[in-house]
Amino acid sequence: MAECDCPDGCGLRIEVYQGPRIDQEIYLDHAATTPVDPAVVQAMLPFLSERFGNPSSVHGFGRATRAAVDAARDLVARCLHARPEEIYFTSGGTESNNTVLLGVTEALREHGCHVITSAIEHHAILDTCDYLQSRGVRTTVLPVDEYGLIDPEDVRRAITNETVLVSIMHANNEIGTIQPIAEIGRVCREAGVLFHTDAVQTAGSLALDVDALNVDFLSLSGHKFYGPKGVGALFARRDVPWRPLLHGGGQERHRRAGTENVPGIVGLATALGLAAEKMTGEAERLIRLRDRLIDGITARVDQCRLNGHPSQRLPNNVSLSVAGVEGESGLLILDMMGIAAAGGAACSSGSLEPSHVIQAIRVPPEAARGSIRFSLGRGTTADQIDFVVDAFAEVVAGLRSLVPNYAETLRALAS
Ligand SMILES: Cc1ncc(COP(=O)(O)O)c(C=O)c1O
């Protein structure tokens, strides 16, 4: 807390509310956000104090931050196997996604007016497609199979002469299914259609190579891989047409106006670089813990299904639907037990309707309401997993004991 130092001596106490005390011990919501890596904080600190110059300024203060932004761009480009001039810094995944959808359809309006996406995209894609639809852009929303997979042949069949863009996410934030992006990209390339992938959930956990993936655009977000919030990046292949979302300055080579978020950009790049260094070992460790959690819970809790693909899934994602319980009630009890998890998508929780993703993979209604997501991270240990298995089995048994017709529900499900 600080006291105002104005010459009037007003004595005003300046304090930013920090929120309630956090008692949680086990954080299993890394798909919503991750803690910032201490090394990332260290890398950012100078840019929150003495290195404060505006990168557009020609003096030494400005040149120092310009050099830092350039170095960050180089590092992000290396991590994606892209060129530095193909990387644009944004305010996060939402902005990167909006930029591609709005920017490509605006640039190519004369060539066509049709966009293809999938039923399980993040709302930053789906809501933007709704908006585009209201502006006269036709949108095809492709279905997914029971594992949440998109069939590349469906993409091929949906492409018309009017199609200007296909946008399919790399991995789903709720159920963790990883899409055959390289194959879908090949289909788009053969048809001469631009292809975007929302890699917000995979950047930092899977190796990304924009050429191998056959993508023209790729979105990522710093806070999903132990970097800061409010900063993201967009890969846009050289020479592909798109118009900027923000106007008002020459930053980011006239593609994204506004003074750069230098601490954020440095943090994002440092975090992505660190994640690349740790990637292989950490993915293997997470897969072991993920499977321990899936096996533990499914052995203890009957009528519990794993959502998403059994093997083509993110190393840290466990999404379950449990018959006869209300997922939100389970979340609240877990919360009281010191365990942080999520129901449906973090960005749209609060609604008791099964999420659009759970509906798209056709989870039976009795189980759809009992959907819960655990997303593991660097701090997750085997002891925590064992504790969560016990706690979850207890929570489900407790909730089911409150459902008077639970036995009939189970019989109906089994028949
Ligand atoms: C798949 C996906 N895309 C986009 C976003 C939005 O990213 P941001 O929070 O950086 O705006 C999220 C956030 O949860 C996400 O999971």
Molecular structure report:
This protein is an alpha/beta fold. The chain has 2 domains: 39-274, Type I PLP-dependent aspartate aminotransferase-like (Major domain) (Aspartate Aminotransferase, domain 2), CATH 3.40.640; 279-414, Aspartate Aminotransferase, domain 1, CATH 3.90.1150. Helix content is 40%, strand content 13%. It is built from 13 helices and 14 strands. The strands form 4 sheets. It has a 7-stranded mixed beta sheet, sandwiched between helices. A 3-stranded antiparallel beta sheet has the order 11-12-14. A two-stranded antiparallel sheet has the order 1-2. Helix 4 links the parallel strand 5 and strand 6 (138-142). Helix 1 (38-44) runs antiparallel to helix 8, helix 2 packs parallel to helix 8 (262-300) and helix 5 runs parallel beside helix 6. It is globular and about 75 Å long. The N and C termini lie far apart (63 Å). The model is unreliable at 345-349 (pLDDT under 50). The structure holds pyridoxal-5'-phosphate (PLP).
Overall morphology: globular
| Name given to the CATH architecture of the largest domain | 3-Layer(aba) Sandwich
Largest sheet: 7 strands, mixed
**Estimated helix fraction:** 25-40%
Q: Give the N-to-C terminal Cα separation.
A: 63 Å
